[in-house]
Design a protein that fits this description.
mainly beta; Metal Binding Protein, Guanine Nucleotide Exchange Factor, Chain A; 6-stranded mixed sheet; nucleus; transcription regulation; transcription; NAC domain-containing protein; transcription cis-regulatory region binding
Length: about 140
């Protein structure tokens, strides 16, 4: 896909742009596509396999992914893969546009193995979600 982009093009959106220009469009229409953001099931991919699935990028990659529930009737998110799990670090960051809360950003680190004995890796993911959408069947955009 990168061939159709002008020389020197770099995809480096702000948090606000990710929410307003990409995630909100994807949530409104799951058929929405972007040359820079691939659709991937993050629970079926190990972080080291993600660069090959990315639409573009050498050291940073963006993905749309459906939120997977840990339990069918619960609100907790499943972030486990076959080889490990993504663990939340710190508290969520609020993202504003014109003084209005539009989304949240969560930072996660990948651990190899199973909790609580997982081994911390250098893989970091930033997960964005819309603030005003119900939690059922949520789409998120992730930056790794």
């Amino acid at each position: 896909m990168e061939e159709s982009l002008p020389p020197g093009f770099r995809f480096h959106p702000t948090d606000e742009e990710l929410i307003t220009c990409y995630l909100s469009l994807k949530v409104s229409d799951v058929r929405f596509t972007s040359k820079a953001i691939a659709d991937v099931d993050l629970n079926k991919c190990e972080p080291w396999d993600l660069p090959a699935k990315a639409s573009m990028g050498e050291k940073e990659w963006y993905f749309f992914s459906m939120r997977d529930r840990k339990y069918p009737t619960g609100l907790r998110t499943n972030r486990a893969t076959e080889a490990g799990y993504w663990k939340t670090t710190g508290k969520d960051k609020e993202i504003f546009r014109a003084g209005r809360l539009i989304g949240m950003k969560k930072t996660l680190v990948f651990y190899k193995g199973r909790a609580p004995r997982g081994e911390k890796s250098n893989w970091v993911m930033h997960e964005y979600r819309l603030e005003n959408k119900p939690t059922f069947k949520t789409i998120k955009v992730c930056y790794i």
